[in-house]
Amino acid sequence: MLNENKTLEKLLNFGRKIIPRRLFKAGQPIYHWGLAWAGSLFYGFPSRSIKVIGVTGTKGKSTTVFLISKVLEEALRGSQGEPAPVAAIGSLGYKIKDKEWPNNLKMTMPGRFKMHKFMREAKKAGCKYLVLEVTSEGIKQKRHLGIRFDSAVLTNIYPEHLESHGSMENYIQAKEMLFKKAKHAHILNEDEPLLERFKKFKSNKKILYGWHDWSKLELNTVLEGDFNKYNILAAVAVAENYGIKIETIKRALEKVVSVPGRMEYINSGQSFRVVIDYAHTPDSLELVYSYLRKKLPLGRKLLCVLGACGGGRDKWKRPEFGRIASQYCDEIILTNEDPYDEDPQSIIKDIASGIPDSTSSPHAEPETGKHKVKVILDRQEAIACVLALATKDDTVVITGKGSETTLAVAGGRKIPWSDRQVVSDILTLK
Fold first, then answer.
1. Residue 233: domain span
2. 37-48 core/surface letters (b: 16 or more CB in 10 A; e: else)
3. Domain for residue 31, yes or no?
């Protein structure tokens, strides 16, 4: 990636160091607005040359971006095998044609200058489409400004980032901003209770997808769970909006055997199942646990490793995680996820408070009722422990990190990390 923007970006960020914190906080909207338009101007408004597809919602954004990209690639791949002119940005990583690299920023949407620099490079590479995962936090910080969105996709709306946004209403309004920006097509989940709110925004086309469409699709997919069916239906609706034939859509989707870090099975020849998943909201966690519980052979156990994000983020979710884990899992191991500067033991204590009859001490290893709870702060040790506990036909599920490649700890440090790699290494040694 080019580094030509460093000087300008340093000048624009210099104000953060010299302006008093309280004054800077009050002026943040102007600051973010200025950065967004400065980045767009500096890189020559690259989104005007690409069809940008923005995907937002609480759950399923990353998977939907991934699936849309795969369908577009199938439709646009050259006859001689040339890479398809498709780019993508999201928590699963970055992609420009056949070049891919991980997203190590701990930000689904990159900063304004990084965003527009990426789009210019995609444009220079000849990309015709960019599929972009759009978050409420990104919109709050106005990272979407200066981007010309061709279409907008809504997956679903659940409570998320409430401490950051201040209320559920503010969170919803942030999501709505994308649909105010995209004028060509709005692709909406008609089973979303807030559908009517999102239908009110003007666009040339409104395309609805919903559960009733699944039986008509007749798709042979290995992706499991009803939640993935919705993600697939969203991708199908987007593809049809751009004139892609259903035969091509189905061919592309049937080639997808897994989505990195999303209900991803790790198989190293062990006698039990191991699943890693990004689930980071109560609803997502419950969907994953309930689905895996239903798939368990009679008499076998569901064992889980989970934590919660630190840094004061969404503390309300922590007891809910504990409650949900206690409802579905036979063995629970609480561990670090991304503590940032928050005390990891405090995070664990919050999760444990939602587990019935569980002690609040993060050092205890109580056996409670139908489930056992262990606390192992070191995530690698926690994973090793759960894999040692699993026996034939059990299922182990490790949530919170998915395909992420770093673990955020105190002092702004990011430690290289991969749940997938840790699991594979341990299983190989067993």
1. 39-255
2. bbbbebbebbbe
3. no
